[in-house]
User: Fold this.
Amino acid sequence: MRQKLIAEGVGTAMLLISVIGSGIMGAALSDGNDAIALLANAIATGCMLYVIITVLGPISGAHFNPAVTLAFYLRGDITAKLAMGYAVAQVVGGIIGVWATHAMFDLPILQTSETLHRSGIAQWWSEILATLGLLFVIFGGLKSRPEAVPTLVALYITGAYWFTASTSFANPAVTIARGFSDTFAGIYPRHIPAFVIVQLIAAIFAHKLFTAFFGR
Assistant:
């Protein structure tokens, strides 16, 4: 169990390093062009997802996401104790990843985001759809081609950065961690609870829908 928890924490930390780091670098090099910064952010995140899912999947299952962990718990694939451990490791790992990125770019380690545009019904609906899409890719991939899941998840998130209004957080641990960074990829802390709630609701709905659709 210790090895699994470490894998989940390290993987989530690496995911946040890619999210925050590419956001900082993209914003610095894009000369104010948010489209270029978002493109850099999406590509780097997708690349990192492919790597960490491929490398750490055999150890922990490569959730790196409490919504994914909740869905697998509801399916009966993991115990409640392991699910709780995963969620804690993911959140802690994500925050450590944010702090490590700030240190890498010589920024203040401790920050809170001042980004104010991530709220409202449209953003919440976007997160529901983004989380449903992610779980559709995971469960559908496990049913049809398990070996392709790292590629499928990486491609989906890279695309979802662009076709969702919220830029597809779809991950409570990532959402919480991004509240600790006042950079391109940040989210205002007061907007975090609503994002997390709709992501978890989407995970519950996805379990019922995709279990019926794809089977066990």
